[in-house]
Amino acid sequence: MVCYDWLSDEASKLLEKPRGAEGPIWLALRSDFMPCPADNTVVLEMEIEKKNLLVFDVGKWDYILNYWHIPKDENDRLSFRKAMDEKGVRNQSEVMMTQFYPVLKREVRESWSRLFDENIRVSKNDQAICWEIRMEWVVAVDGKNPRDLFRI
After folding, report:
1. pTM as predicted
2. CA 118 to chain centre
3. Over the stretch 3-29, which tens digit does the pLDDT of each residue have?
């Protein structure tokens, strides 16, 4: 939960969190990134202004889930690797999963803010989060016009 708590805290600093919102809603920006259909679920197609979203490189999110340092560039990556080598750390995840290495741990946590830096890329794929879903954003529900499904 450390990663998801961190994301929720950071997202609330960058995107206004509506009253009553508990956690971010995950959005696929492309159909090939959508979860597989499952029983008792629907697919919402939405049009949301960017000001209501936080878009980020999914590869950097994977770094966070693995408790890895997100380097700002190649020199930063090499410098962090050297610092780990000097401490005898072979696996980046070890930094966050032990009570040791407080300086490295701080560097890892601080590097996570790069999740929202569009100029730092580790993959070509993006995803997004938002805090709410507004009816006016919904274009289709499982391919059908939402106005045909909901009577208000």
Report:
1. 0.88
2. 13
3. 999 999 999 999 999 999 999 999 999
Number of residues that make up the chain: 152
- Number of CB atoms found within 10 A of residue 112's CB: 20
Closest CA to 67 of 109, 102, 10, 22: 109
- CA–CA separation, 87 and 64 (whole Å): 21
43-82 residues labelled b (16+ CB within 10 A) or e (exposed): eeebebeeebbbebbbebbebbeebbbbbeeeebeeebee
Provide the 3-class DSSP secondary structure of residue 7.
helix
User: Is residue 90 helix, strand or coil?
Assistant: coil
Q: Which residues contact 54 (CB under 8 A, 6 or more apart)?
A: 11, 14, 15, 24, 116, 128, 129, 130
